[in-house]
Amino acid sequence: MKKAISYVLSFVLVLMLLSLCLLAIVKSTILDEKYMISKLEEANYYERMNGEIIEQFKNYTIQSGLSDEVLENLFTEDKLKQDINNVIDSIYTGKELEISTSEIRENLKENILTEVEKEGKTVDFEDEAMEEYLKAIESAYESQVSYSTSTINSIGSTFEKVISLAQTAQIIVIVVTIVIAVLIIILNIKQIFGLNYLAISSMASGLFILIAKFLLGQSTDLKNIMLINQATSHVIQLVIEDLLAKVTIAGVVLLIIGLIFSIIYNLQNKKYFEKN
Amino acid sequence: MHKKENNSIILATIKHLIVAIMFIILIAVIIFVLFGSRISMAISLINKVSIDTSNVVLKDVKLNSITKRLESYPEYGTKYGDLSIDSLDVDLPLYYGDTLSILRNGVGHSSGSYFPGEGGTIVCMAHNTIGYLYNLSDIEIGANIVITTTYGKFTYKVEETKIVPETQVDAVSVSHGEEMLILYTCYPTNTFGHATKRFITYSKLVDAQYN
Questions:
Q1: Residue A81 — pLDDT band, cuts 50, 70, 90?
Q2: Residues A258, B16: C-beta atoms closer than 8 Å
């Protein structure tokens, strides 16, 4: 009976260890604003986004009768970095996001006037075609920086709750894990503190993580994920690589701890039987 | 004796490993029962957004002569042929897809329309600037537009041209039964800003040579 209960507790401990690993990894990566900003720096996200935005601008300019020269100096690197960081902050804190494009519009109008005057022509900014073009450029900047301001605002309110939930869940899982481990030890205090059950739990968690990671790698092509644009995709790929690395470390550490516990148990068990 | 002791410890550890593996199998069964369909949905979603883009012409695209449908389709964003209009000195690469990025490379093919040889409406478009279709509005009725693909060469004769507002989407509607090429560009070509009209040509298939 004691053995059966210990095996059941050991199985539940596997689930707790898996949950603990998952929560710890996710909390220290995806759910951490500072981590995400560091990944943006690592991925040269700001410079890449600058390039992506200009490419989008060119997509609209190519059919506008204007040259790419009108796209020069529409916004500063500082403004772009500030806007991107505001997006990240909005996601993690739920703050209302607003991206101003008035500076871009004014700079663009100035550049257009300069170019058009060089050719000895005139331009009417009240014209529908010109207004559509200006709007398209502003919209391109906003959508590249934030994908969609309204989407970011709705994600932000949900994300805040998710972070809070994850913190609560982690505390609960830690407490339950300790309780179960202590129960196993108490139940088997005379059998080398139930180290064999702890070993099995640790090995099972470690192996499960490693096998799951392997199967995920076989069935998906995570390295070529393409979302929104190249710059964002590169950040996502870096985060995934980091997650997988942390998952592998967690799996290996749990497996080794399990093996060590098992060997210690078996050595102690052998001595126990030799004594008796 | 020492070796025997080591063997017994190893065997005991392996027994623990076996129990651990049984736990893993049990967890896998529980996960499969509870979340099986969601997991396969998630995996296919991940694979859908995993795109290995290339600019290579697809060499193994074949047309089924009985069903009149392609046996395999080009990857979105890849070049699958060329579009030429001799009377306008136009010879441009033809890509599957119609995003602004694709249109910077040449002629785009609307993903909601048929392919040449499939007996339906093919909708293609390109920019109205130098190097693209800047002179499409000079095309004459009766001019030929040729699409050359890896699976065949298709000649279309222009029957009608129109200038419509960009919001008039029914001007580029897709149907099946008669193969028609709709090729359009922004209009007019000599203004600044976002052109709010489209110059559209409607051409019927007059010749098809299959590879």
A1: very high
A2: yes
